[in-house]
Amino acid sequence: MTETTSLHEAGTTPDEPVTASVPENPYAAPQRPADAPASGTAGFSIASLVLGIAAIPTGWWIASVLAIVFGFLARSREPQGRTMANWGIALGFVGAFGWIVVAILGLAFVAPFALWGAALGWGPGGFGW
User: Fold this and answer.
1) Is the residue at 5 inside a domain?
2) Given pLDDT bands bounded at 50, 70 and 90, which one contains residue 70?
3) Would the pTM of this model clear 0.70, i.e. be above it?
């Protein structure tokens, strides 16, 4: 064999590439070609997350409802944005029902003072004024 002799397998022509027999990993993520565009955008997921975040400090219940709706739409249509959709749903529920928690905490804070005042006779004619 000389330096100019190619190392092709027997029975193949020099124009055919030699392919290695590497077993394919059945657990590997599917590979897409490098020149293929990214698959879709995560529009519903992003909208759900943004509306969920915005609904909490502003108190807009409609933003909370939209965050929940967009989140569930995104979970079914955009698998790549599932995490954002889940957070949008969670924050949407916090924005929609967080006022209940605030009301309960407010009553828990104010109720002892109201009961204390009623027990001591505060109100009209209380303390003999």
Assistant:
1) no
2) very high
3) no
Q: Is residue 63 part of a domain?
A: yes
In tens, the pLDDT along 5-37 reads 555 555 556 666 656 677 788 888 777 676 655
Per DSSP, the residues of the chain read --TT---PPTT--TTSPP---PPPPTTSPPP--TTSPP----HHHHHHHHHHHHHHHH--HHHHHHHHHHHHHHHHH-GGGHHHHHHHHHHHHHHHHHHHHHHHHHHHHHHHHHHHHHHHT-STTGGG-
Dihedral class, residue 126 (left if φ above 0, else alpha if ψ from -120 to 50, else beta)? beta
Tell me which residue range forms the domain holding 101. 43-113
